[in-house]
Design the sequence.
């Protein structure tokens, strides 16, 4: 039996607690949170041991692993403490906010031969894994363009009272939302070598970004586009969709289905020339316990299997740090002065902080447009 | 319970197979009138029970059936609560306690606020839970609701945490306050049923995925078949068509072979599909 603790009981922490507690291979020894209220209720009704201080929990209890689901800015400190004590660690995404810190933690975990995993649950969605399998075997030939989009309803009004709305806490759509899309792309085709044209925009938030758009470069022949927006109410929940264009066709994939268009095919693997569709209902295998999507259960079971067998996780601190690195590149790109081609032909340098087109210039912009018409 | 119940996923853009299809459905059904037309079609085909999530949009459907009692005197609602995304989104935005607070009833402010405030302060889960149940049930006032479901995300979350007392609180409140049979939706029926029995909730109504594809039957289709054979609960089979992944006849033959499955719930949008599925179930039930 693997002895586990959980730090941080927000939406993700509580969801992990339900799955960890139900896993036949794990014994949940204690949970830790700064909210005495949540702890009291859990202790009273589920009987779980509770701590307000994670250091106390780590020193008092013999544990084999720790689940970290605190706000992002606390990840590094808690993960480091757990690794030093020789615990396997499952940490929520994005995995810290600084890639250098993440890589240091990855090295520490690797040196100590501890299982280290980050909660990028899209890596455990059956349809995305099917896409990976098909891309790896180059079913659609050499890729020349990719597109990743992630939309959902998280921030829908100006006022937000939780840490997700605060830059200092690691809030904002780039680290809290776009990282899922970036990580999935890293998983499927590897990290980009460069990013450009990045826009971080606020829709409702006053302190953080709500939407991110960027051009990702993977090689001298392969470019991609990233578009994420967590202020889109037309979605019921977060939706990630990827499209890949290759010399032999195209793949569209989301959580529910994978659509494959093949320009030519020999019929192997059950695929035909033209459109092929596979649904999640046929690709997904049941998990031992289901709460909110197979992938959430599957990632925890994978962590347990890695501890039991010594296999490296398919979502490690290192791969997560690669993702945070790309996010940091996007942030840096968005902040640097940009060169754009203006309609009147004049190059126009601008930064993210100053308005793209000043008020007065907007008029001349409209006028020049009208003049042209 | 009737043999055939009508489900509501199609009305709210839930489709386990295709986001495009889900969006098309969300567009078609953003007008309550379109939902009512489909419910009337189902009624005409003999399906008189509507199993529906306590989505705020259900209020206008409830209004319609309250206003048309003479036309649909025997119409039955099985409320399924809560609508989980409402709570999940609020929790991400307002935090855990903020989310709970935001769903406490606003009307009858003094009493409810007092009850809610005191319950919150005393960590009285029973007081809070019953308030939230009452808030969800409000839209069904005056309608026939003989069975009330705890929705699967809530059931399975509580099951995972080991928050067993919540099942008892739910069951007792539904029985006493609404004179209704408490029921549970779950994706983990083989784990849930023994737990409920331990709490003294015997022969519970359980709505769960049962389909030939084994889709979302946790931990396995074998465990489900054993549970069905034991006959320890009143089963309502859902996702019988695995969101359209299975051919209807083949799918329904699988479900109908089990004598211990009492009811089947399915959702459809066209009169043709409703009629076809209903007739197939009737035919396979007789044989």
Sequence:
């Amino acid at each position: 039996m693997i002895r586990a603790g959980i730090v941080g009981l927000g939406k993700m922490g509580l969801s992990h607690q339900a799955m960890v507690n139900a896993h036949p291979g794990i014994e949940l020894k204690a949970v830790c949170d700064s909210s005495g209220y949540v702890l009291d209720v859990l202790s009273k009704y589920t009987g779980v041991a509770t701590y307000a201080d994670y250091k106390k929990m780590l020193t008092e209890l013999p544990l084999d692993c720790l689940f970290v689901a605190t706000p992002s800015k606390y990840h590094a400190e808690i993960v480091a403490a757990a690794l030093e004590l020789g615990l396997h660690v499952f940490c929520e995404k994005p995995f810290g906010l600084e890639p250098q810190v993440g890589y240091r933690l990855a090295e520490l975990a690797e040196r100590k031969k501890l299982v280290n995993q980050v909660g990028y649950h899209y890596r455990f969605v059956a349809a995305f894994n099917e896409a990976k399998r098909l891309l790896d075997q180059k079913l659609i030939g050499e890729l020349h363009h990719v597109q990743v989009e992630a939309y959902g309803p998280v921030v829908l009004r100006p006022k937000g009272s939780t840490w997700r709305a605060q830059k200092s806490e690691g809030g904002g759509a780039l680290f809290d939302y776009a990282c899922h899309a970036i990580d999935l792309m890293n998983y499927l085709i590897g990290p980009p070598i460069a990013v450009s044209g990045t826009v971080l925009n606020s829709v409702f938030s006053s302190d953080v970004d709500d939407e991110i758009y960027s051009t990702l470069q993977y090689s001298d022949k392969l470019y991609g586009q990233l578009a994420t927006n967590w202020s889109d109410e037309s979605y019921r929940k977060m939706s990630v969709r990827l499209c890949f264009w290759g010399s032999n066709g195209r793949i569209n994939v989301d959580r529910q289905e994978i659509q494959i268009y093949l320009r030519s095919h020999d019929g192997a693997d059950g695929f035909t020339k033209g459109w092929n569709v596979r649904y999640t209902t046929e690709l997904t295998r049941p998990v031992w316990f289901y709460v909110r999507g197979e992938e959430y259960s599957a990632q925890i079971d994978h962590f347990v299997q890695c501890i039991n067998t010594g296999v490296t996780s398919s979502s490690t601190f290192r791969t997560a740090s690669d993702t945070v690195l790309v996010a940091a590149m996007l942030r840096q790109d968005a902040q640097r002065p940009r060169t754009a081609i203006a309609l009147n032909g004049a190059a126009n340098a601008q930064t993210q902080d100053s308005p793209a087109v000043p008020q007065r210039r907007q008029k001349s912009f409209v006028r020049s447009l009208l003049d042209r018409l | 319970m009737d043999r055939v119940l009508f489900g509501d996923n199609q009305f709210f853009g839930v489709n386990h197979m295709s986001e495009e299809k889900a969006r098309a459905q969300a567009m078609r059904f953003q007008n309550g009138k379109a939902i009512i037309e489909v419910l009337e079609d189902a009624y005409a085909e003999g399906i008189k029970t509507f199993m529906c999530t306590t989505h705020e949009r259900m209020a206008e459907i409830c209004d319609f059936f309250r206003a048309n009692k003479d036309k649909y005197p025997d119409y039955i609602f099985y409320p399924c609560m809560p609508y989980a995304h409402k709570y999940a989104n609020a929790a991400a935005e307002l935090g855990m306690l903020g989310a709970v607070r935001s769903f406490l009833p606003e009307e009858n402010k003094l009493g409810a606020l007092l009850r809610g405030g005191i319950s919150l302060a005393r960590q009285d889960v029973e007081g809070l839970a019953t308030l939230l149940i009452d808030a969800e049930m409000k839209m069904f006032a005056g309608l026939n609701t003989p069975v009330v479901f705890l929705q699967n995300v809530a059931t399975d979350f509580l099951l995972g945490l080991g928050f067993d007392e919540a099942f008892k609180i739910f069951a007792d409140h539904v029985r006493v306050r609404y004179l209704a049979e408490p029921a549970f939706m779950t994706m983990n029926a083989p784990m849930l049923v023994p737990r409920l029995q331990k709490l003294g909730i015997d022969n519970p109504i359980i709505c769960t995925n049962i389909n030939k594809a084994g889709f979302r039957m946790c931990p396995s289709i074998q465990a489900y078949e054993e549970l069905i054979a034991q006959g320890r609960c009143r089963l309502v089979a859902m996702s019988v068509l695995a969101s359209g992944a299975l051919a209807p006849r083949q799918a329904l033959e699988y479900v109908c072979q089990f004598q211990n499955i009492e009811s089947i719930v399915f959702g459809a949008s066209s009169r043709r599909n409703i009629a076809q599925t209903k007739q197939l179930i009737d035919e396979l039930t007789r044989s």
User: Anything to note?
Assistant: The first strand of chain A starts at residue 2 and ends at 7. Residues 198 and 334 of chain A are 5 Å apart (CA to CA). Residues 351-363 of chain A have pLDDT under 50 and may be disordered. The two ends of chain A are 74 Å apart (CA to CA).
